[in-house]
Amino acid sequence: MFRYGIEHELALLRTDGRFADFVDLTFGELQEVVEALPIDPADYPGLRIGDVGIKCKRWYVEGYERFDEAGVLQRCDPKGLEIRTRIHDSVEAAVDALRADQALLDDQLRGRGLRSCVIAFNPSRSGYVIDPPLNTWEQAHRQGSPEERTAHLHMLTYGPDLNLSSDEIADPVDVARKLTHYSPWLVPLSFSSPFRDGAPWGGLSARTFLRTGVRPAVLVFLDACAPQIASDPSLTQPARLAAEVGRIEFKAFDACPDPTLYGELLSLLTGLALDDTLPGRRTTPDAALHREVARTGLADDDVHAGTGELLAAAERALAGRVADLARLACLRGRWERRECPATAMLARYEAGEAVAGLRRLQ
Q1: Which residues pair with 212 in a beta bridge?
Q2: What's the sign of the alpha-carbon dihedral 339, 201, 284, 166?
Q3: Which of 132, 166, 189, 261 is the 20 to 30 Å CA partner of 331?
Q4: Helix (H, G, I), strand (E, B) or coil at 316
Q5: Is the per-residue pLDDT at 362 higher than 90?
Q6: 2-350 in CATH: which number?
Q7: Whether pTM exceeds 0.85
Q8: Could you tell me which residues are beta bridge partners of residue 80?
């Protein structure tokens, strides 16, 4: 029995087509949207609320939190919204739940001059300035982990956390190290960030180019009493809820416009978790290799071949799991066509269509 969850970050557009981010969005504006959405007590204790109480529903405002010298929350600079599903017993249930919650969110956004947009990197800019500089309390707080130290980077990026856990996984740390090693050949299937600073940047994933290596490709949550692995970025973290113990969280994919692709990628991760043939292991991601792959994706023959080997290994490990194999067959088709969401975005942009608030100058 495998269990699955999806955390999906969304960018936003104004209804006139302008990209909306921390420059002109306010926390209150987005919190009004969240407050209009339903709360379900059955979501808990499976979902974490967090220290400052912002994450009290399946939807919440994603941003960078600022505190005073006593550690009291003063404001949150928003980058967008996040949807997170409960933990489900099948890939299909997790994907269906995400679709349903996306529909509820979109209904609320429509009446507030906003609409959701899926892209993995802010297409309009390349920097988020921490203003004013961190105070003494914040400096100490942001040194609590490698991820806290680099939290400002996520203000530019949008991606999913794809979660899986299972009693069939004897050593989740080993699986996390395997997925970290093979991440450069997995992530091109999801690339969806071909723009930055208002134009194409020359690659397919500005998100991967900026974040992976500085931030983790995979995290695994261990019992708080279990020994943790010291690394930068982290590979392990203490579980904050009982429901998190043993959870493997793949964090390196770009945000995907169609939740169907999340389902296919979850099946791929399941197969790789079950695989007992692939030898590669790393504790931290290969940042240089991720940057190379971010430029070319599956157009590079060596990358394409490496991704194909992972698909084949997952297919072997998933023998008899009909639904997973059907999803992998769809993913194999994407691989054969060397396609990812970024290639479609660039084609639309070149055709003169607006993409995430950008339009090519004729």
Answers
A1: 215
A2: negative
A3: 166
A4: helix
A5: no
A6: 3.30.590.20
A7: yes
A8: 62
How far apart (Å, rounded) are the C-alpha atoms in residues 182 and 179?
5
Give CA separation, 115 vs 12, 16, 27, 77, in Å: 6, 10, 16, 19
Query: Phi/psi at 265 (nearest 5 deg)?
Result: -70, -35
- Tracing tokens 């929350």 back to the chain, one arrives at 73
Query: Do 242 and 333 touch, CB atoms closer than 8 A?
Result: no
Q: What is the mean pLDDT of residues 187-202?
A: 97
Give the orientation angle of helix 172-186 with respect to helix 301-317, to 10 degrees. Answer: 140
pLDDT grade, residue 42 (50/70/90)?
Answer: confident
Residue 140 one-letter amino acid: A
Q: Are 303 and 186 in contact (CB under 8 A)?
A: no
* 3-state secondary structure at position 208: helix
Cβ atoms of residues 208 and 294 within 8 Å: yes
CB neighbour list of residue 61: distance below 8 Å, 6 or more residues apart = 27, 30, 31, 34, 54, 76, 78, 81, 82
Q: Residue 50 above 80 pLDDT?
A: no
Q: Where does the pLDDT of residue 188 fall: very low under 50, low under 70, confident under 90, or very high at 90 and above?
A: very high
